[in-house]
TrEMBL record:
One GO molecular-function entry: DNA binding
Organism: Thalassomonas viridans
Protein name: Helix-turn-helix transcriptional regulator
Domain HTH hxlR-type stretches: 7-106
PANTHER family in the cross-refs: HTH-TYPE TRANSCRIPTIONAL REGULATOR YODB, TRANSCRIPTIONAL REGULATOR, MARR FAMILY
Length: 132
């Protein structure tokens, strides 16, 4: 991928600078979605062409991997790569910021409190969930 600059924030935005990519990572990370249809059925109702393109880009950028579903060889399943899992602290910070500045966010209060007060254990628990 061509870099726009050497700025670290710009670099992250080169990978996940659109809302759809972040929402795909969110669904894989927090909601246990793995198939195209599961990802498409998120509240935001992403168009199939956008979802296809973003999954392809996330895979090319090594944030997501695609495998054949062992239970149905016609389907593909998507999982976070180690590089994708490294986005977890960033996603948590975004959730904390949103819950602080938008009282109507649907982030569970206990989850946000844990993200603030028990961050390392929460990260460990979430990452362990992806290992199973």
């Amino acid at each position: 991928m061509a870099r726009r600059s050497d700025c670290p924030i710009s670099n992250v935005l080169d990978f996940v600078g659109d809302k759809w990519s972040l929402l795909i990572l969110r669904d894989l990370m927090f909601f246990g979605k793995h198939s195209f249809s599961e990802l498409q059925n998120s509240d935001e109702k992403m168009a199939t062409n956008i979802l296809s393109k973003r999954l392809e880009t996330l895979e090319q950028d090594d944030l997501v991997s695609k495998q054949t579903d062992p239970s149905d060889k016609r389907k593909k399943v998507y999982t976070l790569t180690p590089k994708g899992k490294d986005m977890l602290p960033i996603m948590l910070e975004m959730m904390i910021w949103s819950s602080k500045h938008d009282p109507n966010t649907n982030a569970p209060k206990l989850f946000i409190e844990r993200a603030i007060n028990d961050r390392e254990n929460l990260i460990s628990d979430l990452l362990n969930k992806h290992e199973n």
